[in-house]
Amino acid sequence: MKFFENVAKQIFNNEGIKILEGHVAYSPEEAVAICSEMGVPVVVKAQVLTGGRGKAGGVKFANHPGEALKVADEILGMEINGERVKHLLIEEKADILNEFFISVSIDRAERKPVIMASKEGGIEIENLAKTNPEKIIKYHPQPLIEFLPYEAREIARKMGVSSDLIAPIGDIIWKLYAVFEKYDCEVAEINPLVLTPEGLVAADAKLEVENDSLYRHQDLVKMLRYKKKAVDFVKLDGDIAVIGNGAGLTLTAMDMIKLNGGEPATFLDIGGGASEHIINQALNIVLNYDPVKVVFLNVLGGITKADDVARGVIKALEQADRKVHIVIRLTGTNEKEGQRLLEEAGIPYEISMEKAAKKAVELCDELSAE
Q: Could you tell me the fold of the domain covering 232-369?
């Protein structure tokens, strides 16, 4: 069984191989929320079980949340070698000084594991194997004898890396072989292993486990299951983003916008009991959606607490690169505390949904007339 990069990296990290900070997104809105929270340039990577995704356009960079929304929308749903992209890995963009290649697999001819390593890693490794095979070091560990750290360091030395990298690269080779043995792998690979100012990091990861051994690794199989989206998001043709806590409340807010002559730009249901984090995520989505001129946030607090809503709003507006006007209807559980927090932050609110919707449309009309 093949495992997605995000799962392979979790396994490598658990075994002591350093990885970059990264999070999985199943939709463009989750991608922009993750990028906003990370606060750094990111790489958006298609999660597929086939090779060649970089050349196929499945790996793109984003310097800010708005760009993350755009590239995530481009990558999700695309086909790479016949495989449809269903989720993404949003990962910190590395400051790469050098790239290396390390792989452990089965050599069928020798009936032994084989470690392959090169000081020239990256997407051209297959061409390197054809044009300059001598640059790829091959070593066959004895399967019935323990593979020792000094053997791994000797492989690193033969790679031709600088003396200060022999020990750390050797350590990663040794740990990768340990992963290969522990999880009954057919392939365990890092390409590229990158050198950054902070040290060596697995920038990509490949893991294939022998099918007949999966009964011993059910924890790995469970890691492949998709999670439910935190919010339900639909793009529309207007310029007023509508957010509500519950599908019915969100649809009612959209009706009120249309009744007052406006056009919704989004349907975004954050659900009942939405936390501060979910509020922040939802606002990050619409604040980075270009057609949006005004945000109408319609919250009737039941299990959703008004003070959590206020904190999420304040945090999102502080982090936003793009300034968008927001109109809030906030009432219900802990409403006094939530309203106090908004007042202290200088953010206006309404208690009446009708008044808030009318205000959102009027504000959008003023902005359109400018």
A: Rossmann fold (3.40.50)
93 phi/psi in degrees, rounded to 5: -75, 125
Extract the tokens encoding 205: 């990861």
- What span, in angstroms and rounded, lies between the C-alpha atoms of 368 and 134? 65
At the top level of CATH, which class does the domain 1-13+95-229 belong to? alpha beta
Distance of alpha carbon 240 from alpha carbon 236, whole angstroms: 9
Find, among 23, 76, 19, 29, the residue nearest to 53 by Cα. Answer: 76
Amino acid letter, 9: K
What 8-state DSSP symbol labels residue 19?
B
The answer to whether residues 118 and 101 touch, using CB atoms and an 8 Å cutoff, is yes
CA dihedral for 95, 101, 102, 106, sign (positive or negative): positive
Residue-range domain boundaries for the chain: 1-13+95-229, 21-93, 232-369
CA distance 88 to 24: 6
**CA triplet 361, 285, 222: central angle to 5 degrees?**
145
Class of domain 21-93 (CATH, top level): alpha beta
Q: How do residues 173-199 score in pLDDT, each as one tens digit? A: 999 999 999 999 999 999 999 999 999
Radius of gyration of the CA atoms of the chain, in A: 25
Task: Give the DSSP letter string of 266-281.
Answer: EEEE--TT--HHHHHH
Per residue in 199-219, pLDDT tens?
A: 999 999 999 999 889 888 888
Please state, in angstroms and rounded to a whole number, the distance separating the CA atoms of residues 141 and 154. Answer: 12
Q: How far apart are CA 117 and CA 302, in angstroms?
A: 58
How far is the C-alpha of 148 from the C-alpha of 152, rounded, in Å?
7
CA proximity to 155, closest of 134, 168, 173, 143: 173
How would you classify residue 154: left for phi > 0, otherwise alpha for psi between -120 and 50, otherwise beta?
alpha
Q: Residue 232 pLDDT > 80, yes or no? A: no
Calculate the CA dihedral of residues 294, 76, 127, 189 and round it to 10 degrees: 100
